[in-house]
Amino acid sequence: MENNNRRILAVSAHPDDIEFSSGGTLLKMTGKGYEVFLVVATNGENGFKIPSNNRKERIAVRKKEQMAAARYAGIKKVFFLGYKDGFLKYTDQLRERFVKIIRDVKPSIIFSFDPSNKIFESVNLHHRDHRVISEVVFDAVFAARNRYMYPGKTHSVDFFYFYGCDRPNYFENITSFIDKKIKFISFHRSQYYDLDSLSLWVKKNLSNWTKKYKYSEKFRIVKIKQPFITNV
Fold first, then answer.
1. What is the DSSP pairing of strand 159-163 with strand 109-113?
2. Class of residue 223 by CB neighbours under 10 A (exposed 0-12, middle 13-18, buried 19+)
3. What CATH number belongs to 7-223?
């Protein structure tokens, strides 16, 4: 999709959400000249696969891994919000933080969990942090373009790329990017230390969404309709 504003804000609840859901697509888009900014809402410390009783150490490891992955993908900046993994709550403060980020970054596209997917078929996909972040981001996009809700210069986003969707309307061909996507994920070694199994699992279970392409990522793309009178 071509757009004069070639900025993307990718939003995740935890380190590695974006890599798994949208990594191939984002790698393609950075290659086309898009600037990608990443928000990581929680520390991800409770999804640690390597035994460790030191919470600060787990947080530090996950942040280090996320920064390494971001450098690999050419991500311009990572916003770490620092919330406790598994305990994210929808608050006005959290929405306001996202409004500020949206207005500062000024993206044309936002990648986020799909707030409409409430089928609760997977405890991993539909758990609390994912549900909360999806609704907060959706509401922040509305608030960011409103001149009265929060002070500051408004900004209007053009498109949502919703991942984790149950009603996809778009499939991105990532066949030539599948190995780069796996490399992108592999920086999170505290989560996926068996790289051979990771590669096989991604190819067999996470990239076969359409018969049109060998490997793909799925999205529900929503064009955000702007009001007739802007900034209200």
1. parallel
2. exposed
3. 3.40.50.10320
Tell me what pLDDT residue 192 has.
78
Query: Which residue in 45, 12, 41, 44 sits closest to 164, CA to CA?
Result: 12
Residues 35, 214: Cα–Cα separation, whole Å: 27
54: nearest Cα among 40, 68, 43: 43
Instruction: Show the CA angle centred on residue 110, arms to residues 115 and 89, nearest 5°.
Output: 45
- The answer to whether the beta carbons of residues 208 and 163 sit under 8 Å apart is no
| pLDDT tens-digit readout, 44-100 | 998 877 777 799 999 999 999 999 999 999 999 999 999 999 999 999 999 999 999
- Residues, the chain: 232
Give domain limits for the chain: 7-223
Q: Express each pLDDT in 126-155 by its tens digit.
A: 999 999 999 999 999 999 999 999 999 999
Q: How many CA atoms lie within 13 A of 47 on its CB side?
A: 21
